Amino acid sequence: MAAACAAASASLSPPQSTAQRPAAQGRIVFPCASAGSRSRSLRLRPAGRRSPAIRSMPRANKAVVAALADPLKVMIAGAPASGKGTQCELIKTKFGLVHISAGDLLRAEIAAGSENGKQAKEFMEKGQLVPDEIVVNMVKERLLQPDAQENGWLLDGYPRSYSQAMALENLEIRPDIVILLEVPDELLVERVVGRRLDPVTGKIYHLKYSPPENEEIASRLTQRFDDTEEKVKLRLETYYQNLQSLLSTYEDLIVKS
């Protein structure tokens, strides 16, 4: 699976030059889980061009090819430490999307000591989902800001349950594609426990797979309060409890990697 994850990352490599804004045309390729399978792809074309293949595509066909007149709207889902952050950086760079992380929104509220932040922290420390009413308005307001509306968005870590998905559906907020990352549980636990944050730069390190460059950086690294083996197992349990009902909402839009 580690090799598969590496292949997925390679297939999403950003363009060689980042001096210019990403073009409105391109492709994301997501390898299938089984060896020898064809890759699944998302293709973008300039506004106004519609592919007959999309109009006639069977519902059961999991190969997703989207020709979009409007800005691209992407959701990415996966268990804690499944690699969403890495993939988001690659997709954001290639397609110029606005990256919106529900987790970052929540952690900003926690750091600010707001009432929403205090309530959210209580649930997160128990490995439970933060109640919808605390999160949905923050996400909605961010999605409706001008930069996300004009450039398209990449929603990371939300929705995480059927009720959250329905909240977005009721607001008529729906993605063009949902990317689901699949990683074995034992690897997820190892990734979480070894994960560290540089509070100065915001960069994420891993003590084993991506150690800090020097002792100065190593000395200031911090660990998220919920990045422990006990907490991540609780988070995984909650994630799997909600996964199937969540995926049923976006059945025709899912690409697995």
TrEMBL record:
GO CC term, one of those recorded: chloroplast
Keyword Transmembrane helix: no
InterPro entries attached to this UniProt entry: Adenyl_kin_sub, Adenylat/UMP-CMP_kin, Adenylat_kinase_CS, P-loop_NTPase
Molecular-function GO terms, alphabetical: AMP kinase activity; ATP binding
Enzyme class, broadest EC rank: transferase
Highest taxon in the source lineage: Eukaryota
Keywords attached to this entry: ATP-binding, Chloroplast, Kinase, Nucleotide-binding, Plastid, Transferase
Cited SUPFAM superfamilies: P-loop containing nucleoside triphosphate hydrolases
Catalytic reaction list: AMP + ATP = 2 ADP
Family matches, as CDD domains: ADK (cd01428)
Entry's localization field: Plastid, Chloroplast
Assigned EC number: 2.7.4.3
Entry's family note: Belongs to the adenylate kinase family.
Record-given protein name: adenylate kinase
Species in which this protein is naturally found: Urochloa decumbens
